[in-house]
Every structure is written in structure tokens, then in C-alpha cells.
Amino acid sequence: SKSYFITLLPGDGIGPEVISVAKNALQLIASLEGIKFKFNEMPMGGAALDLTGVPLPEETLLSAEQSDAVLLGAIGGYKWDKNEKHLKPETGLLQLREGLKVFANLRPATVLPQLVDASTLKKEVAEGVDLMVVRELTGGIYFGKPRGFSTNENGEELGFNTEVYAAHEIDRIARVAFETARKRHGKLCSVDKANVLEASMLWRKRVSMIASEYPDVELSHMYVDNAAMQLVRNPKQFDTIVTNNIFGDILSDEASMITGSIGMLPSASLGESGPGLFEPIHGSAPDIAGQDKANPLATVLSAAMLLKYGLGEEKAAQRIEAAVLDTLNRGFRTGDIHSAGLNLVGCKEMGEQVLKSI
Amino acid sequence: SKSYFITLLPGDGIGPEVISVAKNALQLIASLEGIKFKFNEMPMGGAALDLTGVPLPEETLLSAEQSDAVLLGAIGGYKWDKNEKHLKPETGLLQLREGLKVFANLRPATVLPQLVDASTLKKEVAEGVDLMVVRELTGGIYFGKPRGFSTNENGEELGFNTEVYAAHEIDRIARVAFETARKRHGKLCSVDKANVLEASMLWRKRVSMIASEYPDVELSHMYVDNAAMQLVRNPKQFDTIVTNNIFGDILSDEASMITGSIGMLPSASLGESGPGLFEPIHGSAPDIAGQDKANPLATVLSAAMLLKYGLGEEKAAQRIEAAVLDTLNRGFRTGDIHSAGLNLVGCKEMGEQVLKSI
Ligand SMILES: CC(C)[C@H](C(=O)O)[C@@H](O)C(=O)O
Ligand SMILES: CC(C)[C@H](C(=O)O)[C@@H](O)C(=O)O
Questions:
Q1: Among A76, A152, A160, whose Cβ lies nearest the Cβ of B162?
Q2: Which residue among A285, B12, B14, B71 has its CA within the 20 to 30 Å range from the CA of B95?
């Protein structure tokens, strides 16, 4: 039987709780599908800072690199918010993305019929939303150099960063996006600020060139300010969106909130080859950490993405997705998605119910 | 009687139609309030490109600089979309902002009780939204150098821009924002990406320093991705938001769409001294240009901001604002904000009704 090595990075806040649920789901699916998992749990983020003094210890990165896939809970918390840059939990996450070379971040934003009321958008606007943001993850202003602080001729402090893209960085994320759109509804919207930024002009030019390889996909371009509006006005107009690192950070979070159920949303970060990184899009929620209140479904669905995109285990992935829907249909809800008449459960109980559904 | 010199920049698309309505409103208010206006209409954007070959002719900038205030319609259109950067209508707008040194862009997003149904957000989420985005307008990645295109060691094309802020640029926009918050509900939220970007770390540091000058204003900080979510989740939590040029571009458009009536929203761009620039936040809408369908109220309300922030004519400003509300209360609506049972009118007729209300 196939055997996979998975690095688990529980991280901070609610991370350990949701990872534990997802691990159980993976273990059960393995026994049913004749798969074997070897798990290695490693410290990362604030937990790693407290333990080792750095947010991404070498051993953690090494384990991740040697894995077939990596599942991350969440990182960060008030405790480390004022740390210097190289000692921030977030810096560990950026180092992990860079180390694993996972340049393509896939973030679905789907409004499930069961949860349409959770959205702050009117029912007729929210229902049926099903879009995918493909965010460039290892380039742009997050990693561009020069960056830092300096002093100008007046002795004044300056802070600066560089938004930079090379042609091949745009080409490869564009290809992932076109492939993604092809498997979805064949529509790709590339988002940039090409009316102002040179980096965006190159972005638009390269995406338009790559389009000729995908004549079956319908490509459009949109400015980022307009995209931020259109997501609110009519999110259903979007199928697949591709954009740079910083615009993707903003728009994917906006899109996820439009579903109203960010406790449900997974993500996958993929490279050319090598292990993918899978994580819920929500944060570490330090205010409810350790209280058995977290919604573990985003992490369970991230495990499903891990099976599908990371290991090619489509069938096992589908069984997990189906189990999540079944659990919702049976009326179980954590606090974040609860509404009157439904069964309010904690993180652990939700995990048990998913296992039952599997 | 006081006399003011106003440069009108109708620009492109629906620009001339909405400027004509706003001019009439200003003229009427002048006669009633004992003010005198001298108007000078100058070409700008695509109109200027067609006429003179550049998007901001020297004479236009000169007239703007010599004015007491500048009122702009809208610029841009498909026709010029593929122009090279220095021949884009947008470049003319950036040159105008830079030329007038209007570093502070005030963008209110208000949900009027009369128009709450226009929002795609649920009524209970949208009603009562009343926030102000204070966007830095003449710095950051829009103007930062170096910028452009180059080739890397592999002979590959690169596109790059620089996000850079100097301490004084942050200090002065922060002061405008604190002053604005003080006149509103005393709450200021500064939005940045200080967990990743050095430019944002300096931003946060300086805004926090300036806060000590405004002990009566409650300051909070938020990451831009979270802000994009919170605007959808609960926009009422915000009073005044201050942020950099590019984040402000995105978030102010998102906030305006949350109101559902971007045809209603004005903006003011102000400098240390010298004339302010006032414009509706909507675009040039080339698809409905010349069809008498545009909503002129955003430009009329921009004229009110011109009176208030540009000339200190508070009373005249209030009369225009009151007239706009009265026109809505009397049931007149352009297509963009129309709903069953109300009186659908065109741009001109809406203008007539505003005059009547004044
Ligand atoms: C934690 C932070 C560095 C990160 C990012 O900005 O990429 C997060 O917001 C995300 O989107 O995964
Ligand atoms: C037209 C464009 C250059 C401009 C900007 O990005 O500033 C517009 O989107 C705005 O917000 O006024």
C-alpha cells in the first residue's frame, strides 16, 4: 500500500486543536483507503520561537522539505506581535513558503447552500458563489529587494520595499491559473494595477502571452480597485482569479469573508515539484485558543486538498469533502457558523462527527 | 462679496455631463449666498490627449494651480487603454495630484437611509455605515523610484516599482487623519501590512508617534488583509481609516461599493495649502456616456466638499448636501440607484431637481 510522509505544523493559538482533528480524519481515511501515513509533528511560528528562539527552526524546514506534503494549523498571536521582523511568527511562514518554493497559492471561496445565511451579503448575491483565487506566493513585494530602512538627504527616516516580478515568475503562476480555470468553468480574471505600476504592466503582458496556450480559457483583466468592488457587488461573476502576492493577500481574504464562513475555507500552496503546503485560511484566533471552540473544518478541508493536490489521492479527498458536507447536513455547527435550531458543538465533537460521516 | 476662481475639468465619458450639473448647482448657490465664481473649463485626461497629445496640458495644470479649487469629472476610457504609460489619461490624473501636492485624499462612504437597499449587504449590516477613508495620495508605490523595466542576469524581463515612505509623508497624512477623526467619532484605524513590509513598519511607528498629539482620538492598527475582510463583515466598526496610497485605492473602492451607491460618493484631495481637487469617486463610465443616464449626485456632493474643505464655505456646502437629500426624499433616482415605485430620471433632470431643492 502507498505510504506518505506528512509533516504536521500545529503552530499557535487554535492551530494544535484543528490539526489534531484533521490528523484523525487523515488516519481514518488512510485505514479505509489502504493508504499509510507517517506523521511528524514539528514546531513553527510562535511555538517555535518560544521553544527554539526562531520562528522556523532548521529541523522543521528539513522535515517539511522531506515530506510528501505539509499540513499547517495557524501561526501568530499578540504575544509575538511586537517582535522584530526576523523574530515574528509571520516571518517563519514566509521562510517556509520560500523554502518549499510554493509559488502558487490556491484559495477557494465557496458559499455552501447550508451556510448561505452566514454571509453578510444578501442571499441572492451570496448564493452560488464559487470562485478560486490563485495568488502568487513567493515573489512580489513580499520578497523583493532592496527593502529596509534608510535616511534621506534631510536626515529623515525612510521605509521601503520593492514590488518586482520577473517574466518566468508571472508565466508559471499564469499557467497554474489557466490550468485551474480549465478544470473549473473556463474563465480567468487577471487582476493588476497596470494603469499605474510597471510591475503590473509586465504582469498583464505575460499573462496575455500565456493565454495563447489556453485558447479554451476566457481571459479578462481587471484593476485591483475594481476587483475589490466587484467582489462585493457581484462575486458570482468570478470563476478563477489570478493575481500577485499582495493583491492576492487582500482579495482572497475579502473573497473568503464574502462567504461568511472563513472557518470553512482551506488553501493549498504548490510548487513546481516537491511537497505542497496546506493550511486553513483563518488565523490562530488566540482569543478562543484552548477553549474547544474552533471550527476544525477548514483544516479538515485543507487535508482534503492535501490528498487531492499534494498526493493525487482524489478518492480519499472526495470522501473527506463528502463527510464534511454530511456533517453539516446532519446539523452540526461550531459557534462561528451556528444558527438557531442547529446543533452547536465544539472543535472535538465536530471532529468526532466528521469521523462518523467518513 | 467673496469671489473664487474654480477650474473645471470635465474629462472623459460621463465627466462633462456630471460637471455641467455640478456647475449649475454651484452657480445657483453662489447667487443665493452672495458668493461669486469664475469658472475656467480646461481639457484633461483622454479629452486632452485627443486635443493636445498629452493627458495633462501645461495650461490645464497652470489654471488648476492658480485656482481656489478644482472640480474634476472623470477620466479614462477604452480608447486610450492601450496607450503607453505617459500617454494614459490616468497618468494625467497622477500628474495633477502631484502638481497640486494634494497628499490627503478624503473618501467618505456613507449609507444613506434612503439608499440602504442599494447595498448588496444585508440591511442590518449596511444601515448606518458612515466611514471616512483618508488615503495618502502623492507617495508610496504610485510615485516611488526606482521604477520601470529591466533585464536580469538570465536575459529575462523584469517589471518593478518601489513602495517608499519618508517619515514626514506619514506624519502629515496621519495628522489629517487624526483631525478628521476628531471631527467625526474620535476613532481612527490605521491600516498597513507591518507584519511583512518595512514601509508599513515605519508607517505604524510614525502613526503611533503622532497619536500622542491627539489623546482624544482612539487609535487602532489593522493589517490590510484583515481590513478588507472587516469591511465586509462589519463596516460599522469603522469611523475613520488612514492608509497608504495603494491600500487606500483598494479599500476605499471596496468601502464605496459596500454602500451600494457609488454614484453618490464624492472625494476631496487636499494639500498643505493651495487648491484642493474634488471629484466623484466613480469612473468615466464610457458605456453610458452622452446618454443622459449618469448620476450627477456624486459630483454635486464633490462640489459641496469643494465649498466646505476647499473654500471654507460651510453654509453653502450644507445647503447643497441638504438639497441632495431633499431630492432623494422627493423620490427622484437615476438608474444606478433606482428601485420600484420611485421616479426614474436622467442626469439633466436630476440636476434640475437638485436646483429646485436648493
Ligand atoms: C501571516 C501573513 C504573513 C500571511 C500573508 O500575508 O501572506 C497571511 O496573511 C496569509 O495570507 O497567509
Ligand atoms: C485612475 C487611477 C490612477 C486612480 C488611482 O489608482 O488612484 C483611481 O483608481 C482612483 O482611485 O482615483
A1: A160
A2: B14
Q: Is residue B130 flagged as an active site residue?
A: no
Identified catalytic residue from B50, B81, B117, B225? B225
Q: At A75, phi and psi to the nearest 5? A: -130, 160
Strand partners, B133: B107, B241
Pair B298, B157: CB distance under 8 Å: no
Any atom of ligand 1 within 6 Å of the Cβ of A90: yes
* A310/A289 Cα distance (integer angstroms): 28
Cβ neighbours of B160 in A, within 8 Å: 144, 162-165, 198-199
Residue with cell 485624499: B105
Is the minimum CB–CB distance between A31 and chain B shorter than 8 Å?
Answer: no
The yes-or-no answer on residue B225 being catalytic is: yes
One-letter amino acid at B84 equals: E
SS3 A163: strand
Alpha helices by DSSP H, listed for B211-286, are: 224-233, 245-259
pLDDT category of residue B1 using cuts at 50, 70 and 90: confident
N residues, chain A: 358
> Mean pLDDT across the stretch B267-288?
96
Nearest CA in chain A to B283: A226
Closest residue by Cα to residue A122 from B120, B68, B258, B1: B120
The strand pair at A343-344 and A332-333 is best described as parallel
- Identify the sign of the CA torsion B235, B241, B246, B249: positive
Counting DSSP H helices and E strands in chain A, the numbers are 12, 14
Residues A182, A184, A186, A187, CA torsion sign: negative
Tell me: the pLDDT tens digits for B92-110? 999 999 999 999 999 999 9
For residue B355, how far is the Cα from the chain centroid?
Answer: 23
Model pTM score: 0.97
Distances (CA, A) of A346 to A9, A111, A322, A334: 22, 22, 20, 6
pLDDT in the model for residue A314: 97
Strands (E), A174-320: 187-192, 218-223, 240-243, 266-270, 276-280
* Residue A166 to residue A241: CA distance in whole angstroms: 20
Determine whether the shortest distance from the Cβ of B196 to ligand 1 is under 6 A. yes
Residues of chain A where predicted confidence (pLDDT) is lower than 70: none
Cα gap B174→B55, rounded to integer Å? 31
Per-residue pLDDT reduced to its tens digit, A3-14: 999 999 999 999
Residues 44-63 of B with CB under 8 A from A: none
- The cell numbers describing B99, all together, are 502638481
Dig out the grid coordinates for A17 from the structure.
486543536
Exposure string for B140-162, b = 16+ CB within 10 A, e = fewer: bbbbbeebeeeeeeeeebbbbbb
Report yes or no: B134 and B242 within 8 Å, Cβ to Cβ. yes
Q: For position A213, what pLDDT does the model report?
A: 98
Amino acid at B253: D
Start-to-end CA distance of chain B, whole Å, equals 20
DSSP state of A111: -
Cell of B190: 490605521
* b (16+ CB within 10 A) / e for A317-344: bebbbebbeebbeeebbbebbeeeeeee
C-beta A249 within 6 A of ligand 1 = yes
Q: How far apart are CA B256 and CA B115, in angstroms?
A: 13
Residues 171-200 of B with CB under 8 A from A: 193, 195-200
